[in-house]
Design a protein that fits this description.
This protein is α+β, with helices and mostly antiparallel strands. The protein has ten helices and 15 strands. The longest helix has 18 residues.
Amino acid sequence: MTDHLRKYLFADTTVRAQAVSLRSTWQQVIARHDYPPAIQRVLGELVAASTLLSANLKFDGVLALQLQGDGPVALAVVECHADLGLRATVKLREGETVSDDDDFQTLFNPNGKGRFIVVLDPQDKHPGQQPYQGIVALEGDTVAEVLEHYMATSEQLQTRMWLSADADCAAGLLLQQLPRHGGKTVVEVEPQQDEDADDTWNRALQLAATIKPEELTELPPEKLIHRLYWQETMTAFDPLPVSYRCNCSRERIAQVLLMLGQEEVDSIVEEQGKASVSCDYCVKTFDFDAVDCAELFANHSPVVRHHSDLKH
């Protein structure tokens, strides 16, 4: 089976489990870049986490997870669409070096100014609608701990994650405690029901805590869940495919050149013979010669400046 994510629900419907294993998708992310092992690990964990969180959202758009660092790594970002098509990239600070054994805080937060940012960008925006953005400090020694901190501070459901990545695979497990009693308040239910729900949550956590990083990357989701919860009665949902997808295009690159302005673009063409723009994600390069650029600016209409993921 291709890369996929599986969802499971415990028998009393108070706990959700999700597991994902990405091989082909992950290989397509890193094949385009020469990332050191320490960065591969962090980016792979962020990639796995993005699919686990996207699969929980009833949202037609893009979920972006960003680690903005004040260390050797300036930015790590993953964009995951509602259909679990994703892309990812990392930007290092010029002149910085990364050791294979650098830990998370050394890479992103040595001066305590790093930030974790969650962006929800709707597919079809209403006029004037802006993407949702949540920002928290980089508290934690792993991507999982940073995400759990974000979920706790945003007053969402209790959530725990286990993430692992190497050169071959990016994988993860998510546990989430769901709302109880079909919307009834705690006063309206028997105390025993609350105790049973807590027992399910605590049991799920204790079993998940036994998982080893290599089991996450070596086992497909079905075998991982079976190894952990073979004694539990669980509802299994259909697998959700995950794939690599970069949405860069010549049209989007043209917008980047328009934002640079004709004077700057003409200067680049005069110096280099063409304007070349590369996508930070898939590193595909788009070339515009003098004729292309002249036509572009002759025919363009005013554009609204926005954040670009591309560089020239």
